[in-house]
Amino acid sequence: MHSLDSFQHFTDFLLSQGDTILSSPINGELWKVRGVFLEFCKEDTYHTPTTYTDFIDYLRLFQTLSGGSLHFSTNLSHALTSTISRPRLIWINFTTIKILHYRLRGLAPPKKQPARRKEAKSLLDFISQKASTPTVELGQVTRLTVEVMTDFLHKVTARTSLGRERAKLRTFKVPFPQVCSDSKHALQLANSGLNKREYISSSKQLASEYIVHQRIQQARNALSAETYQCSLGKIHFLPILYNHTDVNLGDCSYLDTCHKMRTCRYLHYFTLNPLKSESAMKMVEKDLDYTIGQCFSESFRSITPPQWINCDVRSLPFGILGKFAVIISDPAWDIHMSLPYGTCKDDELLELPMHELQDEGIIMLWVTGRSIEIGRRALRKWGYQISDEMIWIKLNQLKRTIVTGRTGHWLNHSKEHLLVGLKGDPRWLNLRVDTDVVVSSTRETSRKPDEFYDIIERLVGPHARKLEIFGRAHNTRPGWLTIGNQLQGVSLHEPEVKYNYEMYISQNPN
Ligand code: SAH
């Protein structure tokens, strides 16, 4: 019998000899191989096979142990019977020998820093790169195996790559606004573009951006060429000098979201964005070849027009709306602040029959301050697993991070949180296309950035059913159904929903 330990010698032997025992003068002849092996073990003969027969037995066991890593010219059993066609060793699978070597020694493979490989561009590229990596060096095999696995695990899937490609085709590229830093430009443009009569009496509405651009165009000769050119390409904040403005006080910290603009003595600005060129306004979308598991006709199927229902969400039976792939909800949490709309109690929100709206999919819930915890509780109660959290970093009119937020008891809040919940196993989501941070300007009270809709649409695809709860008129969008109590009337296009809603109204006239 041979102990497991005794085979350590043989793997040591094979790895140290390499191919030399296969060629002249040994030529893989087993009696010679045995001789060299005994010579190799001469200091430790305790475990080595004693006779030639014993050596053949030893080889047989080694074959079983190493998964047939030795190749012989004929069957090994002829070694003891045949005198004419004795098997010779003709090939050694060093890869499996090395694996066995480390297993027998109970060792971890040597920690050699892997050379940084060039990033493969495609999966094919990646595999051929692996195939061409030589594996003869001692210890490299096990390392490669782990490495290959890790690489595969971290490699973005074809689905993700396709999702990103598709997003590129479908998405407007909006350059991050370049703001002019030359205050002289803003002053000159204000003189030409803002009509003093409009704002000296601050009861008058300021002109639209388009009119201001027209005025600047007309006054072009009075402006320096540099200022005019700059007005076409960058954002300018034109100072508005109301009668009550005291320039020495500096900028109003609320800027364009100031609630007392008509009396506030701090400085306010008019935002003059560069005129958008026609080509920039055109949708970039080309013919899409990428379908990522969705119906391939989606690129030419029209999207359902915006749909909405004015209602109190607490009394609308959600069952009539059908199921949705994604829900976004910006509840009117009672956060003890004066808000220009009614709010709901925590319990009322928690009691909403959300389970009727979704069997599988994703939900996004806006939360703030105190409601972060209630929001988490609500999601879990509604059967979701909280999978992510997105934030919106708020920018003020001057495109800088807000420092004087209107919310926050101890710190001024400059961001808002969106909890992301997951129900079921929605494999159809386009994963890892967008990030969890959106940096965008504030608008009306509570109004959220449109970027979130774009992110959701990329995540679920244009034709997936999408629902917004607590939405307002400016939130209505193609492909979406919006419900809330500040919407005007009802507009439905999906025949089933329309039918269900009419039935519901006919049975509940009030
Ligand atoms: N996300 C929106 C803001 C939502 S503010 C945006 O981007 O503009 C919350 C909205 O929920 C308000 O319009 C408020 O009037 C509405 N709301 C409050 N209680 C409601 C209720 N019980 N049913 C329906 N809508 C309600």
From TrEMBL:
<dbReference type="GO" id="GO:0032259">
    <property type="term" value="P:methylation"/>
</dbReference>
<keyword id="KW-0808">Transferase</keyword>
<dbReference type="InterPro" id="IPR007757">
    <property type="entry name" value="MT-A70-like"/>
</dbReference>
<dbReference type="GO" id="GO:0036396">
    <property type="term" value="C:RNA N6-methyladenosine methyltransferase complex"/>
</dbReference>
<dbReference type="Pfam" id="PF05063">
    <property type="entry name" value="MT-A70"/>
</dbReference>
<dbReference type="InterPro" id="IPR029063">
    <property type="entry name" value="SAM-dependent_MTases_sf"/>
</dbReference>
<keyword id="KW-0489">Methyltransferase</keyword>
<dbReference type="GO" id="GO:0001734">
    <property type="term" value="F:mRNA m(6)A methyltransferase activity"/>
</dbReference>
<protein>
    <recommendedName>
        <fullName>mRNA m(6)A methyltransferase</fullName>
        <ecNumber>2.1.1.348</ecNumber>
    </recommendedName>
</protein>
<keyword id="KW-0949">S-adenosyl-L-methionine</keyword>
<comment type="similarity">
    <text>Belongs to the MT-A70-like family.</text>
</comment>
<dbReference type="GO" id="GO:0005634">
    <property type="term" value="C:nucleus"/>
</dbReference>
